[in-house]
């Protein structure tokens, strides 16, 4: 056997990556804190100096405090939570299906949640569950049910092929969206409400939404960290991963449950916010490499930062008119997508 | 160590394997030969347990292979996949470390011992000088050696290789097979290797299994299995045996396939 001299010391590469990772975590954490401060200071109803005073304890007037701590703070926390949930779900989906274009919506989460929300609004269920509005509860259930529907539709002879799963996702998604459109057409009066919901917004978010979303997001991100190594190995193909010792089906089903729960919880509280799960992981993967042990926590940070920026823009750019945040993220997502397609070879 | 008892396998009703039986032992370098579509890869994937035969059974250390968990099986059996391409930019070292998955609990990270083993495997496969390079930047031959190194790093007594040299130039073909032969000899491993090249198989394998239309038509030493009449019957082309300093080699009768005018 020919042996070659070890010209590159094997340790030089990992340490350079370690420095880059440390810098990444650090700068993103600092950026997040600064943006949080900015998001609290900016906005309608209370100008920046007044907000500053409330924040540092000088001002104690009830309305100012409630604007800051009852409206802006929960909204800020919620946008970070939802951004983290959506981008981590994107990482999991892309890793699990070896498909750079996969994101939670591809399994029908958003169309299922949309149909659930439409049903709740149109038929006006009055009662609530755990203090949550029927719209939230039904869209949460719709999101989860659609994932399971997609899973069982694509199951043949006890096996699920990845391609048939993705195709089933598209088919079920199209069907559920059509059902939503038909309901909207038949009930003109609720059309605008349903339509606005599907565009996604944080404008009605309060602490109860944070409490609803937090357990799902936190548990989802923590649980997905346990599968980081499995996701790394899944990149080698399902068969090879199986033969390296990964229980591939079990891992895929568990990750699907995790993404279904976290995404549905996020979407049910805020409506459909697209592109986050696609853009954030791609950017981070190109900077920090494909190791999911770092990609998952970095995506949680990056997704939180991205959606916090988007929501702060959504409520300040055209104030007093508020833009739907889902529209803003999609406006960023479209061009970004084209950029990715042109810059990188497919799958690269 | 690996026993195949009367297995038959059908893909959507099309028969790919018909009543195949084999008994494979440690210390053997086994080459599976046969024309395209003869069932070589299907047989290998059945041996690995990623396909389940419709009838018959496969025993690994006397136990049905389906009774092993993925992790348990990976400690006994390592796999080198067919075709080489890399999607994600892991380094060669990270890729080789994936071979240690079966030995980790879910929460542990790579130990010093894992890293030492990975470097040793890279060295063994002649790939240590690009340990820190991204696999997406490697050539086909370099990547193939990384994948062989990963299988070596897995430390399993059985190696299953699906056409590990078909994309490589002649020097890298020899290198890879040399590495596998060394592993068989030094650690009493069992290597089962699907090959296309009769001459490489004849040189490196102790035992050749010749397949045709889903069945084993011959099983034995290279000298026993590779005969002119049998090869012509299986491949549908006459072959000449030529003596060289490296032993006999097989050359097709090129003119017999001349295109009609």
Descriptive notes:
By secondary structure, chain A is an all-alpha fold. Chain A has one domain: ABC transporter involved in vitamin B12 uptake, BtuC (Orthogonal Bundle). Chain A contains 14 helices and two strands. In chain A, helix 4 crosses helix 5 and helix 4 runs parallel beside helix 6. Chain B has nine helices and twelve strands. Chain B has two domains: 225 residues, 3-Layer(aba) Sandwich (Rossmann fold), CATH 3.40.50; 35 residues, no CATH class. The termini of chain B are far apart. Chain B has 261 residues and is α/β, with parallel strands linked by helices. Classes of the chains: A mainly alpha (348), B alpha/beta (261). At the A-B interface, helix 1, helix 9 and helix 10 of A face helix 2, strand 6, helix 3, helix 4 and helix 6 of B.
How do the strands and helices of this protein lay out in sequence?
The complex is a heterodimer of chains A (348) and B (261).
Chain A: H1 12-41, H2 48-55, H3 62-97, H4 109-123, H5 134-153, E1 155-156, E2 159-160, H6 162-186, H7 191-199, H8 207-225, H9 228-234, H10 238-243, H11 248-270, H12 276-288, H13 292-316, H14 325-343
Antiparallel strand pairs in A: 1-2
Helix pairs in contact in A: 1-3, 1-13, 3-8, 3-11, 3-12, 3-13, 4-5, 4-6, 4-7, 4-11, 5-6, 5-11, 8-11, 9-13, 12-13
Chain B: E1 2-11, E2 14-24, E3 29-33, H1 40-48, E4 55-60, E5 63-64, H2 70-76, E6 77-80, H3 92-97, H4 112-124, H5 140-153, E7 158-162, H6 170-187, E8 190-194, H7 198-204, E9 207-212, E10 215-220, H8 222-225, H9 228-235, E11 239-244, E12 247-252
Parallel strand pairs in B: 3-8, 3-9, 6-7, 7-8
Antiparallel strand pairs in B: 1-2, 1-4, 4-5, 9-10, 11-12
């Amino acid at each position: 056997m020919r042996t070659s001299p070890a010209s590159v010391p094997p340790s030089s590469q990992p340490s350079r990556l370690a420095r880059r990772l440390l810098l990444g975590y650090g700068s993103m954490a600092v950026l997040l804190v600064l943006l949080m401060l900015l998001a609290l200071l900016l906005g309608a109803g209370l100008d920046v100096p007044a907000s500053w005073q409330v924040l540092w304890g000088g001002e104690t007037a009830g309305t100012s405090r409630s604007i800051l701590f009852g409206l802006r703070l929960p909204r800020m926390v919620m946008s970070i939570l939802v951004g983290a949930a959506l981008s981590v779900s994107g990482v999991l989906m892309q890793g699990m299906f070896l498909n750079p274009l996969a994101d939670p919506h591809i399994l029908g989460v958003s169309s299922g949640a949309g149909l659930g929300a439409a049903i709740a609004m149109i038929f006006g269920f009055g009662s609530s569950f755990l203090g949550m509005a029927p719209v939230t509860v039904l869209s949460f259930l719709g999101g989860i049910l659609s994932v399971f529907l997609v899973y069982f539709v694509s199951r043949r002879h006890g096996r699920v092929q990845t391609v048939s799963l993705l195709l089933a996702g598209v088919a079920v998604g199209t069907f559920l969206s059509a059902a939503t459109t038909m309901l909207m057409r038949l009930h003109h009066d609720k059309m605008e409400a349903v339509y606005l919901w599907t565009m996604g917004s944080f404008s009605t978010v309060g602490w109860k939404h944070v409490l609803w979303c937090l357990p799902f997001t936190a548990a989802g991100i923590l649980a997905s960290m346990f599968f980081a190594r499995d996701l790394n190995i899944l990149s080698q193909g399902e068969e090879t991963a199986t033969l390296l010792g990964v229980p591939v089906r079990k891992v895929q089903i568990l990750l699907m449950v995790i993404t279904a729960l976290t995404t549905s919880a996020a979407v049910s509280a805020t409506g459909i916010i697209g592109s986050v799960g696609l853009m954030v992981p791609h950017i981070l993967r190109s900077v920090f490499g494909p190791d999911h042990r770092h990609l998952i926590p970095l995506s949680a940070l990056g997704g939180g930062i991205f959606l916090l920026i988007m929501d702060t823009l959504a409520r300040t750019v055209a104030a007093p008119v508020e833009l739907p945040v889902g529209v803003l993220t999609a406006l960023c997502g479209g061009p970004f997508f084209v950029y990715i397609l042109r810059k990188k070879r497919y799958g690269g | 160590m690996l026993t195949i008892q009367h297995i038959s396998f059908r893909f959507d009703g099309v028969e790919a394997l018909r009543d195949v039986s084999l008994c494979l032992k440690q210390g053997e370098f086994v080459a599976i030969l046969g024309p395209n579509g003869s069932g070589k890869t299907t047989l290998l994937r059945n041996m690995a347990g990623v396909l389940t035969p419709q009838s018959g059974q496969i025993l690994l250390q006397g136990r049905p292979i389906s009774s092993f968990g993925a992790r348990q099986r990976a400690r006994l059996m390592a796999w080198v996949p067919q075709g080489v391409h890399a999607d994600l930019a892991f380094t060669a070292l990270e890729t080789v470390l994936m071979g240690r998955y079966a030995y980790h609990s879910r929460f542990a990270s790579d130990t010093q011992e894992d890293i030492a083993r990975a470097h040793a495997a890279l060295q063994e496969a002649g790939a240590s000088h690009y340990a820190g390079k991204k696999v997406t930047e490697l050539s086909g031959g370099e990547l193939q050696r990384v994948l062989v190194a990963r299988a070596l790093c897995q430390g399993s007594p059985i190696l299953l290789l699906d056409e590990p040299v078909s994309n490589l130039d002649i020097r890298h073909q020899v290198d890879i097979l040399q590495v596998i032969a060394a592993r068989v000899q030094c650690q009493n491993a069992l290597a089962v290797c699907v090959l296309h090249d009769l001459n490489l198989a004849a040189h490196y394998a102790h035992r050749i299994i010749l397949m045709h239309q889903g069945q084993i038509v011959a099983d034995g030493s290279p000298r026993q299995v590779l005969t002119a009449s049998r090869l012509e019957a299986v491949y549908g082309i006459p072959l000449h045996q030529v003596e060289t300093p490296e032993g006999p080699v097989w050359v097709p009768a090129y003119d017999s396939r001349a295109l009609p005018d």
